[in-house]
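Quick illustration, no need to memorize.
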Amino acid sequence: MNLSPDLLPESCDVLVIGAGPAGSAAAMLLARGGLDVVVVDQHCFPREKVCGDGLIPDAHRALRRLGVFDEVMAQAVHCSHVTCVGTRGQAIDVPGSLAVLPRRELDQLLLRNAVAAGARMFAPLRLLAPIESHGEVVGARLAQGEREHSVRARWVLLATGAVPQGLMVAGMSTRQSPSGVAMRGYVKNEAMVGRIDRLQIVWHRALAGGYGWIFPCPDGVFNIGVCTMDAQPSLRSGRARRSPNLRHLMDEFVRVHAPARELMAGGSLLGTMKGAPLRTTLNGARFGRPGLMVIGEAAGTTYSLTGEGIGKAMESAIGAAELLLKGREAGICDDDVLRQYEALLSALRPQFQLYERANLVNRHPWITDLMIWRARRSPWLLSKMSGALEETTNPGKLLTLRGLWRALTA
């Protein structure tokens, strides 16, 4: 699957930089549409990726659109609920269509399907700079160690994730600092299989500005992690808050949440705890310039409330790929294709901003106690919380004065 960079072609129709869910989703659809697609990544696959590994309904919809849903679900752990735990230990099970598959397996599967469709994958290669001609991106300069390669392309899709270096060298970054940060580890503990059979999200005052999670993976392995959105710039001031130490947050999570203590005490850590930045709320990057589109988490397609971004990353990639194919078939000029892509993402900003406002829950975890207490007594509120997973309800509206009043009285 990983072709040697020495075999890189001099040109292609579309050059995709980054082979995560967004890059592979775009490559898959474009190759199926008959375009010559080259994918490059700085890592050979399979490779590890820091993530919670949760696949919520928006990811399920994207996987169905790609035609790989059944293949993914055959490998994943299926869960019918996410358990939300408040600061006082009260919990509510929120129903939803949920699954967990480590990103190492998910990303490998998506890339394999892109290659099967005709895309070519070359690694390891990192982006040095775009190739420009008369103000338009016409390819990219890439590096394999100290050796340079150049590939010309009609379009370049930048799918380099939350780390800002790719955006910076491409001239697309508007903010280098992350929106949030997360840390996760894999713990094998066969004794906890069946005892933790749902996604767990835990809020506590000790987890300042964020939450902890435990997600069951295949083969008696659990993904345990913490996330904080305290690096998220305020909508009012625009200034970033200083993020707390992630290792300290992980220690606090294990201290305050009994299942986390039991999981760690009786299990074995596979590898090391690893951290990564998050880019949320469609902020921090330009969406495109002539000849180039930014897709996936590089464009900030992660929700700040939940830190979930796999589904939205694939959605942005699917939108970009469909517009490129439509432009080719209908003879739409590249400038119009780019404007349509930018409009597609810009139209989602209000929804992402409501999720950012709902991030108030992470900064003031006592709100979770109130919502969980009420949801245990209100089928209406529980249905709205489930709707937030399904994206039929926007959680930001629940945290308005009107929404809170309805939640307390319904």
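DSSP finds 15 helices and 16 strands in the chain.
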